Q: What sequence folds into this?
């Protein structure tokens, strides 16, 4: 497969993705924000627990 063919295929795939994609509505956007916030809180809590355990083990 030549560079031109692979580039043409890539452009066709990009056009297809743009055609089927849509802007999220308010409810979908709100759900995304909630899931992202929960993920951030979980990662922060795990990091906090790791730091606390690390400090307790250094006593």
A:
């Amino acid at each position: 497969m030549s560079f031109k063919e692979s580039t043409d295929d890539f452009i066709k795939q990009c056009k297809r993705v743009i055609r089927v994609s849509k802007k999220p509505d308010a409810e979908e956007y709100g759900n995304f924000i909630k899931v992202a916030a929960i993920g951030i809180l979980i990662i922060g809590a795990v990091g906090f627990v790791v730091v606390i355990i690390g400090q307790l083990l250094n006593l």
In short: The chain has two helices and no strands. The first helix runs from residue 3 to 20. Helices lie at 3-20, 26-57. Residues 34 and 40 are 10 Å apart (CA to CA).
